[in-house]
């Protein structure tokens, strides 16, 4: 914006800063819309998209025993099936910035929702190849969309990043809870067809695509290209790696819960539908904690203490579900929900807070969610392999303790009041 001057409150013109340039470019490139309606409409669309980013992951565990029985999978192959979509979240998340540069974030989200729905629909075929291919497509869709959303929040809700991060994280948790609790009853309604029950979650994804196409803003091509330009030095920045490792390690605990908690509870003697409902109830608690935790955490300039609190709740709740008496199970699952909803929401909030502008937020989100989810995929795989080797879940308890301690280490560092790419 050469030759442009900004008048501050004092009345003297000054040279525009980088932040001013970003604001001016955004105003020039953005499609006009009523200021009172656009945030509400975009927020609504974000929540509906978020509702569809976890059913593909949380719907499998409640019917995993039936899937293994009907397809003849070994325990190792079942572990791979629960790990595959999480690994794809990381691999395909790396593609998000380049796709946004070429097509715009809004278009990419729309097209990827359709890919997600197609992948879920493939699960209607009760055979391992179709289940694996569906897992890859679903993981790809979730990974790309998840990497783009924090940048959209930073750009379109600059004054309320913690609130909006909490709102769409609440949508993520609600979708996960619904799928965890409803998939097995849905299979019984469908005459015992677990494959059709899994495939039913494609319909909400298609509905979200329609709503997103109508409510999301017309992408600003120049802004999309600018947001996707590589942020020089980000992959060499220590704080960026601390954010990334915190995201990955806390997500690893979440995917152990998604992939195995219902199986663990069934092995402990809990009735199958009840096991699914316990997991669903735990995730429903996340709906509330994911909204409240970012708001409370951002009352301080640092989020390190909040990180320790939510990880402590996560570890205590998960160990309680693994080893405590079954009569106390609902309480431990609620504590687990408080911790995991807060952990994920704070991790996403930290991505936004540690970024100086939407451009950096989009890049940091891509790094944290791609590398982080690739790391997170090792958690459910390791839990399954340990169970396969030992025949019990005691070793999984040691695993979650180790992951929680590592997450706390990097989360405390990521919670400091600094920006990535900032000179010490």
UniProtKB/TrEMBL annotation:
Q: Domain of life of the organism in this record?
A: Bacteria
PANTHER family recorded for this chain? 2-NITROIMIDAZOLE TRANSPORTER (PTHR23523:SF2), PTHR23523
Xref: InterPro entries: MFS (IPR011701), MFS_Cyanate_Porter (IPR052524), MFS_dom (IPR020846), MFS_trans_sf (IPR036259)
Mind telling me which SUPFAM superfamilies this protein's record contains?
MFS general substrate transporter
Identify the residues that the record assigns to the Major facilitator superfamily (MFS) profile domain, covering every copy.
236-424
Q: Which PROSITE patterns match?
A: MFS
To which species is this protein native?
Azospirillum rugosum
Protein name in the entry: CP family cyanate transporter-like MFS transporter
Indicate the transmembrane segments per the record: 77-96, 108-126, 132-153, 165-187, 193-215, 243-265, 277-298, 305-326, 332-353, 365-386, 392-414
């Amino acid at each position: 914006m050469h030759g442009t001057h900004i008048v501050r409150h004092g009345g003297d013109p000054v040279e525009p800063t980088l932040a001013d340039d970003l604001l001016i470019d955004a105003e020039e490139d953005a499609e006009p819309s009523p200021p009172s309606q656009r945030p509400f409409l975009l927020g609504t669309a974000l929540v509906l998209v978020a509702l569809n980013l976890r059913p593909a992951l949380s719907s499998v565990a409640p019917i995993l025993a039936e899937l293994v029985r009907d397809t003849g999978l070994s325990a190792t192959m079942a572990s791979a099936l629960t790990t595959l979509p999480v690994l794809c979240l990381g691999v395909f998340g790396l593609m998000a910035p380049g796709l946004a540069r070429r097509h715009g974030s809004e278009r990419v989200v729309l097209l990827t929702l359709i890919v997600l729905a197609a992948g879920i629909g493939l699960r209607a075929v009760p055979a391992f190849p179709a289940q694996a291919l569906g897992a890859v497509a679903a993981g790809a869709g979730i990974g790309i969309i998840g990497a783009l959303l924090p940048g959209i929040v930073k750009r379109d809700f600059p004054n309320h990043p913690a609130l909006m991060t909490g709102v769409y994280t609440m949508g993520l948790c609600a979708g996960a809870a619904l799928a965890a609790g409803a998939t097995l009853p849905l299979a019984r309604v469908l005459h015992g067809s677990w494959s059709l029950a899994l495939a039913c979650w494609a319909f909400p994804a298609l509905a979200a695509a329609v709503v997103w196409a109508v409510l999301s803003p017309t992408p600003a091509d120049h802004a999309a290209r600018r947001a996707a330009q590589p942020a020089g030095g980000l992959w060499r920045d220590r704080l960026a790696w601390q954010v990334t490792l915190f995201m990955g390690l806390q997500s690893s605990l979440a995917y152990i819960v998604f992939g195995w908690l219902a199986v663990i509870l069934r092995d402990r003697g809990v009735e199958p539908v009840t096991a699914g409902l316990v997991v669903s109830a735990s995730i429903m608690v996340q709906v509330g904690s994911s909204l409240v935790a970012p708001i409370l955490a951002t009352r301080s300039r640092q989020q390190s203490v909040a990180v320790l609190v939510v990880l402590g709740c996560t570890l205590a709740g998960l160990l309680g579900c693994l080893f405590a008496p079954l009569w106390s199970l609902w309480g431990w699952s609620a504590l687990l929900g408080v911790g995991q909803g807060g952990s994920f929401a704070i991790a996403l909030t930290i991505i936004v807070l540690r970024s100086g502008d939407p451009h950096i937020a989009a890049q940091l989100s891509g790094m944290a969610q791609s590398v982080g989810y690739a790391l997170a995929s090792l958690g459910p795989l390791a839990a399954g392999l340990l169970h396969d080797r030992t025949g019990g879940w005691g070793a999984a308890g040691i695993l979650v303790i180790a992951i929680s301690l590592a997450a706390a280490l990097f989360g405390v560092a990521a919670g400091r009041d600094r920006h990535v790419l900032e000179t010490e």
